[in-house]
Design a protein that fits this description.
The protein is an alpha+beta fold and 175 residues long. The strands form three sheets. The protein has a four-stranded mixed sheet. A two-stranded antiparallel ribbon has the order 1-2. The termini are far apart. The C terminus is likely disordered.
């Protein structure tokens, strides 16, 4: 194995840094979904482009839950478990509702959930803790409502009022 001196290594590092300064890439075109189809962001109007720039991306670093955050979840006093019968089995559920302040679809879902006799908690994904909880549970859109049975297992996941109505109409028909 060839050994190099410290001066040789520093020279190689300096040459690499100089070479990297002369690298000139090409413009990257970013596509994102807008009103049901994908389109280049550079072609969006100013309002949509500003909204795109305000979006929060889920990252692995933000999704790591610390021990103190776990304890906060366990000690949440405002979460009472109430029972709600689903299907023909003896399954009872609670829910977690993931929302954002700027989400246009969140208010109707919040109103629908307020009419149900199920207890759960609302999680704001604009906060660091909420974002971490959402990432932990694989939530990539708001609103998202996750229903759990008595064992804490996920039963169902909904993203809008229509999906919620379909589930609870089905439950009412079976019950």
């Amino acid at each position: 194995m060839k050994t190099r001196t410290l001066e040789q290594v520093e020279q190689e590092i300096a040459e690499t840094k100089a070479a990297l300064q002369n690298v000139h890439g090409t413009e990257t075109e970013v596509y994102a979904r807008i009103v049901g189809y994908y389109r280049a962001v550079k072609h969006w109007n100013n309002g949509k482009r500003d909204e795109f720039n305000l979006r929060k991306m889920f990252t692995l670093e933000d999704s790591k839950v610390t021990e103190s955050e776990k304890n906060v979840e366990v000690k949440a006093e405002n979460v009472k478990k109430q029972e709600y019968k689903t299907s023909n089995q003896d399954e009872y559920v609670s829910y977690e509702m993931y929302t954002r302040k700027t989400c246009p679809n969140c208010p109707p879902v919040k109103e629908f959930m307020a009419t149900l006799e199920i207890s759960g908690k609302s999680i704001d994904v604009d906060t660091k803790e909420g974002l971490a909880q959402a990432a932990k549970n694989g939530v990539f859109a708001s609103p998202t409502v996750i229903f759990y049975n008595a064992d804490g297992n996920e039963i169902s996941r909904c993203h809008n009022v229509e999906e919620l109505e379909a589930i609870f109409t089905k439950v009412a028909a079976i019950a």
